[in-house]
Amino acid sequence: MVDPSFLGFPRRFGRAGVRNHVLVLGINGLVAPAASQAAARIAGSRLVATPYGRGQFGADKALHFLQLAGIGANPNNGAVLIVGADRKSADAVAEAIAQRSPAPVEAVTLDDTQEDAHELVARAVRAGTRLAREASHGRRVRLPLSELYLGLECGHSDASSGLAANPLAGAVADRLVEAGATCVVGETLEWLGAEDALSARGADGTIGRRIAAAVMARERAVTAAGVDLLGDNPGEENIRGGLSTIEEKSLGAIAKAGRHPVTDMLGFAQPPSGRGLHLMDGPSYSPESMTGFVASGTQMILFTTGPGNSYCSLIAPTFKLSANPAACVRLDGQLDFDAGAVLQGRLSLDAAAGHLLAELIAVASGTLTWGEAAGQGAECFTRIGPSL
Amino acid sequence: MLHPHRAVAVSGAAESGWDAVRIAAADDVAVALRDLSGTVRVLCGAGIEEVALAQPVPFGHKFALADLAAGDAVRKYGAPIGRLTRAVRRGEHVHVHNLKSRRAGAGG
Question: A21-135 maps to which CATH number?
């Protein structure tokens, strides 16, 4: 029997954190180097610095803002330092974060220093040091699993993913949903060929129709661009692993979604309003998809792979799972869970799901993933339009 | 809801007495659980079928369980995963050289 609780950082409102980062958030590419220099001098800080921030317009600009505000409001942040170019946009991001998160937020900008980047770094270090000390007052307490919001991702899939790793991830998602938690599966293109099964699981009819429409929109974009998905999705590593078509990859990929009804389909980076299983309409490239999850508020990501994939989120601990026996031997030190026994029929899916959930709860309580121990992690901003 | 793969993953006995699995009853292909050649044992539901492979089939790759014609849809997970571009005999490797997507303008 798995202990149905974890040790997390409670927040005054919103979900609890599974980590207590001091986030240094560079909101404009002009100050990314200054943000990076400041972060290196602030204990326990995590740096997310966008390369963009000017010349964007319309939906692309709005989505960039939603990603910045969402990354800042992620409950794994115990404090947020914004490093910006102009005071107005820094205050707008700070305000948006404060609406969704109780973490202390401060902002320093080039406007305040009359374009002096040396002075900007000095002010950022001073403010960031203060925030780091303040965040360090946080203590872990025992909390119910219903506080958790888990992202489910797959990257570099092979045939073992659809046979064992993704069904196992889905079984854990089911258990978390039953405990009152929230889960999200993204990568719309990888519903293509499996959209009938997913649409039928919409908690009401409108959700099913929106899922089908989202898949159709992606399929139309592929057709309009005149590109062949073969070699891109499925990619070369998928093809080497035995996956021949997008339909085959999708049917294996959606097993991550378990079997509960789909509460809602979220827009990219949008936070869920309810609990249960969610889909997110977003890109299928893992780094972009995962930043959408983080901006939506996921505290952890369960990432299935076949031959291995080392990419991790910087903000949400990313737990790697494979059922490819050779990869699990080769990548000791990258893969957090070996599901090879499930593939080979030596361990039932149910028993494996119990072990996996216990390990995820340990990570939620502070145990490092391999990616965290290796000091690897990043966030990747999505663009949906050109710059002016 | 389609969940044949769930059934496969829990069907294993203590010892794995098979080399490949047919995931759903309606499937035209089986998946190799290790690098395979020669005659192999395929888990089909509760029973085992022997299939003589026409060529080596690597781990995770598929082979046909029946003789199939060019243009036939191929099913895995109980659902269509593409269409054959040429005829395939039982035991033949099925992959990108003879199977094409039907979606996103790839296969019409």
Answer: 3.40.50
